[in-house]
């Protein structure tokens, strides 16, 4: 699923404004953590080696997507080059999950009851790829306030391994068994998932800049306040690719803004969007481990604090695949990491954000025989893009707007 030309309708001017030229999952790196014979080589590039599109199968109506979804066909290719059509490959639906878009209440004064809330209704585009044992569900969710949420969910079946033991008490003390037992005689091998997204941001036009807004602690407050420390924002425009390789750090936080340096709000601020990472994970393999050499585009995910990290690199449009063009043969000589080493200038250029979303997966009994879905996501959120809250004019829900469903016993 490729999102092309994502635009947002500016409620104030009625103008469709560009946010992203193109966005898609470029590579999925899945290294397994077993060094033994028959297992050491199991580290997959699910997009480059198998194909997320090629491995996508039809969605199951009423279960993969809501009743009222609209389904899109996919066009695939037989080995001899003939095309064929598969229905129900992508579903698009409006989502009302009972969440709040904005609200405010004040205590009643002089009989005036100020109590306002607006419902959050979004549009979701969803595709699922079944890459061998695993299922990846990709959701692109578009909010009315301009926020885009990209969510990856994992389900399907674990890649498992046999063992003579039925429970951990049977394992002799001289046998090391760090791989979790998920059922009798079945081991779930520990592994990671790294999904690298290609996000060609075009905020109001193709030429954008990347700005790192670092929050720094100021401690020397001159003794004029009981306070000992505050946070201040320090803004740094990235000049070249090296300036834009970022690792997330809980105790040295930054915001990551993509701005249009030629278009300004009425307050004189450049229009922008920011990347908002959520729960993620980083690769801990050695940099010269063969699988990690091939996936060096995840190297900048070394976690400094806990599980949080980020990689951002900027590349030319001719370089859409993070793992390189010939992934099966790759030893890491043609990846996003190599291209970014050219350290090209990126200020006020057509830049691409590459964001890697990661999961460590330590299997447990509930993951067997089919895993309950696990999700994580990141957001692209407007910053000084609109003149004020763009959804003030959204209508509230009324009784007549929603279906009324009662439990059968209450009827
Ligand atoms: Cu997993």
From TrEMBL:
Keyword annotations for this protein, in alphabetical order, are: Copper, Metal-binding, Oxidoreductase, TPQ
- Please outline how this chain is modified post-translation: Topaquinone (TPQ) is generated by copper-dependent autoxidation of a specific tyrosyl residue.
Which residue positions does 2',4',5'-topaquinone occur at? 134
The Copper amine oxidase catalytic domain, residue ranges:
8-391
The yes or no answer to whether the keyword Nucleotide-binding is present is no
State the source organism's domain of life.
Eukaryota
Know the name of this protein? Amine oxidase
Organism (species): Coffea canephora
């Amino acid at each position: 699923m490729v999102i092309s030309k994502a635009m947002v309708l500016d409620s104030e001017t009625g103008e469709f404004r560009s946010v992203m030229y193109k966005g898609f999952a470029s590579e999925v790196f899945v290294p397994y953590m077993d060094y033994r014979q028959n297992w050491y080589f199991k580290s997959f590039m699910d997009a480059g080696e198998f194909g997320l599109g090629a491995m996508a199968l039809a969605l199951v109506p009423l279960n993969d997507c809501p009743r009222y979804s609209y389904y899109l066909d996919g066009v695939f290719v037989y080995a001899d080059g003939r095309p064929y059509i598969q229905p129900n490959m992508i579903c698009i639906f409006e989502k009302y999950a009972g969440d709040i878009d904005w609200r405010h209440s004040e205590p009643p004064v002089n009989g005036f009851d100020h109590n306002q809330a607006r419902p959050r209704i979004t549009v979701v585009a969803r595709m699922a790829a079944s890459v061998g044992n695993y299922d990846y569900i990709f959701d692109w969710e578009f909010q009315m306030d301009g926020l885009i949420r990209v969510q990856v969910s994992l389900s399907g079946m674990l890649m498992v391994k046999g063992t003579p033991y039925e429970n951990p008490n049977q394992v002799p003390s001289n046998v090391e068994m760090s791989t979790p037992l998920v059922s009798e005689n079945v081991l779930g091998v520990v592994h990671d998932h790294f999904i690298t997204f290609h996000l060609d941001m075009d905020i109001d036009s193709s030429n954008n800049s990347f700005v790192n807004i670092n929050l720094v602690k100021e401690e020397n407050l001159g003794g004029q306040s009981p306070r000992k420390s505050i946070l201040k924002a320090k803004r740094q425009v990235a000049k070249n690719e090296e300036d834009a390789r970022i690792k997330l750090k809980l105790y040295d936080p930054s915001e990551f803004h993509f701005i249009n340096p030629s278009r300004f709000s009425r307050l004189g601020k450049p229009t922008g969007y920011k990347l908002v990472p959520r729960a993620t994970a980083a690769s801990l393999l050695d940099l010269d481990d063969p699988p990690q050499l091939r996936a060096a585009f995840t190297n900048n995910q070394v976690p400094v604090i806990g599980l949080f990290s980020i990689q951002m690199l900027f590349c030319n449009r001719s370089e859409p695949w993070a793992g390189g063009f010939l992934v099966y043969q790759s030893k890491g000589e043609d990846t996003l990491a190599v291209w970014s080493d050219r350290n090209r200038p990126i200020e006020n250029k057509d830049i691409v954000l590459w964001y890697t979303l990661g999961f460590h997966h330590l299997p447990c009994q509930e993951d067997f025989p089919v895993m309950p879905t696990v999700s994580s996501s990141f957001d692209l959120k407007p910053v000084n893009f609109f003149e004020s809250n763009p959804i003030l004019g959204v209508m509230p829900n009324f009784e007549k707007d929603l279906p009324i469903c009662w439990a059968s016993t209450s009827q």
